[in-house]
Fold phosphoserine transaminase.
Amino acid sequence: MRSKSIHNFSAGPGTMAKEVIEATEKAINNFWNGVSILEISHRTKEWIKVMKETKRMMKEVMDIPEGYEIIFLGGGASLQFLMVAMNLMNKKACYLDTGIWASKAIKEAENIGEVKIIGTSKDKNYTYIPEYQIPSDYDYFHITTNNTIYGTEIREDIESPIPLVADMSSDILSRPIDISKYSLIYASAQKNCGAAGVTIIIIKKEILGKVNRKIPTILDYQVHILNDSMYNTPPVISIFTVNQTLKYIKKLGGLEKIKQLNEEKARLLYAEIDRNKIFKTTVLKKDRSIMNVCFVMEDHYNQLENDFSEYAFQNGIIGIKGHRSVGGFRASIYNAVTIDSVHALIKCMRDFEQLHIH
Amino acid sequence: MRSKSIHNFSAGPGTMAKEVIEATEKAINNFWNGVSILEISHRTKEWIKVMKETKRMMKEVMDIPEGYEIIFLGGGASLQFLMVAMNLMNKKACYLDTGIWASKAIKEAENIGEVKIIGTSKDKNYTYIPEYQIPSDYDYFHITTNNTIYGTEIREDIESPIPLVADMSSDILSRPIDISKYSLIYASAQKNCGAAGVTIIIIKKEILGKVNRKIPTILDYQVHILNDSMYNTPPVISIFTVNQTLKYIKKLGGLEKIKQLNEEKARLLYAEIDRNKIFKTTVLKKDRSIMNVCFVMEDHYNQLENDFSEYAFQNGIIGIKGHRSVGGFRASIYNAVTIDSVHALIKCMRDFEQLHIH
């Protein structure tokens, strides 16, 4: 029985919609004629139908124009740090350094070619999105749209004179975006798309095939496009959860509706943090993430940090411990986190304030 | 409801034990306090316990000695074709060419250094395991122990003067092996270990750190060992099925017992193929696989191939179509395929013979 009393604010793998979990449970029991989704061959027509449907729904939900391909791969977004550079960098690329994940992407690319960091917010522990100028003579510009650990987010679709590559692992499907502004988008599934184990990659086809290096087969986007994401056995069950998540989003009313819900959840939570005398945000207001809300104790109440952790846990709130490099708290309010859970956290913060400030 | 009438002989993803499917279904519904295994953070102590237990059981079941590490990665065995070469090849390595998968491993390694093919059975469409001499001056020797497509298998643990690397994707956990003979074993899960989405790698630690090249972080075995397979988010649900499969194997009596069961299933099936006037094997007797039993129609009955496919399907038998490069039929009888399913296939072959030979 799924307990109603748990509010899961985990940064990922994160909360999934009840409908998605139930559909997956059912497919584990019986996907086709008593055969579990865990044991169905990826070469059966029943599975290929799911693959095609997932791609079609992804195109529909994200409004992906002609000329783009969608692939589903294992190995995580971290493997994409390497694949992006291998497939797109002829000589040099520029990157925006907005946190640990961006830094990891940079490090992997530096092995492949020349990397120019055109902006960084490392000076203030990545608590804001830095200013930058995009040069026109680089192979691509790489950004991390949402920085899970720090709670900052680039929420507009950037105009870039060179191909724009975006790691959207933690904010894909959270709002409508103008795909035509991007040349490549990648996102691991376990925040807004489904279960861990699959990464979604959306590629403008014309940017491929322009590098001189010999790309290892398994790292070559063109190989995976040619083989419809089945060059090797795909992560079947994880892709199935993506399929169900897209159905859920469609049923809910699409990304415009999702955006409204997400903005409302974030507005409520930031308002409480700003109001509450015990907590404060760590992030520059204009760069606040709609997905990951980071907050710490006001200096005067620092000694209450463990107390609040414990108090929240007693109230069914889990997954709010901040990343060790930031400390404090982080409430991840991905698509599937309900407004009820947000209200539960807000109530908990209010009650805690009352307990300690008279 | 799981239908009793389906006998799934798929080459992978393949049949899984009922217990494993049921335990996974339960964890999807409620892994901890109403939270699904699909939405539990990989940083929670509840999940870390599963990771540790899976590793511990793998060591126990496979009798892995000191000095070896076990890691769990996404990306499939095809990613290991690249990682093996990147991590172990300084200048040159030798490979045994026993089929399409071995050829793919060779192709990927040829990008990294000099590859010597010391034996191939390509001349007879890989229907036997070729003879070979292992040279002593190469960095490692790579074999594919079981060739899923062709139904051949190397069933003894080879003595090699240089580090032995084995792709055991389709026969790992099918019998006890002497791990000390191997320097690296890798296997995708979806045949004998669990659901697609995770690859298991067993590495003798002392063979690492000996190459000069700069290995990309995500492809570096040492990085994954250092981070206990959590350098990035692991494929949680697939690893969970490996955990449950190991529990099931332990309960059944371990690999010695599994081996007996597997050999009995294979003995029965090959005996029927040898006896039946309509079918014949394609593989040299001494190299017959215990996991994948390939057979075709005797020349005289070739025109009955589609009829048999249809007849088998009517009798609840699925997944027996041979790979397009071999044709005919392939019954994959991995650990979780029951002897009842094997008897059902045999009955079907006998009845079909009676229908057509009077």
In short: Chain A touches chain B through 68 residues (CB under 8 Å).
